């Protein structure tokens, strides 16, 4: 799978607005459907679109403290699930 940087995607979307998506995709040598997806993301996320693979779109607008707190929430939920499983295990053991 070929990867394109943000600048290329932004320019492709801009060109597609000028000449149309089919013609722009043909000129750039990319799939029409790929370009349509980039256009959709640009409409949905504005400047936060095309930030790279594996990154959440909302992360572009969040502070480092907000991202840190979200990571902590995920860790605490994971720990909570482990404790629930352990509680169930020991509760079964006491019934014997």
From TrEMBL:
The GO annotation for biological process reads: DNA transposition
Q: Name one Pfam family in it.
A: HTH_Tnp_1
**One GO molecular-function entry:** DNA binding
At the top level, the lineage of the source is: Bacteria
- Say yes or no: keyword Coiled coil present: yes
Q: Which UniProt keywords apply?
A: Coiled coil
InterPro entries reported for this sequence: Homeodomain-like_sf, Transposase_8
Coiled-coil intervals, chain numbering: 59-86
Q: What is this protein called?
A: Transposase
Q: Report the source organism.
A: Paenibacillus montaniterrae
Q: What is the lineage of its organism?
A: Bacteria, Bacillati, Bacillota, Bacilli, Bacillales
């Amino acid at each position: 799978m070929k990867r394109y940087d943000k600048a290329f995607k932004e320019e492709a979307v801009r060109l597609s607005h000028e000449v149309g998506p089919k013609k722009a995709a043909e000129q750039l040598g990319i799939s029409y459907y790929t370009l349509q997806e980039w256009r959709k993301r640009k409409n949905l996320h504005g400047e936060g679109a095309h930030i790279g693979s594996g990154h959440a779109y909302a992360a572009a607008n969040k502070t480092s403290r907000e991202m840190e707190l979200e990571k902590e929430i995920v860790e605490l939920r994971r720990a909570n699930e482990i404790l629930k499983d352990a509680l169930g295990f020991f509760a079964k053991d006491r019934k014997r």
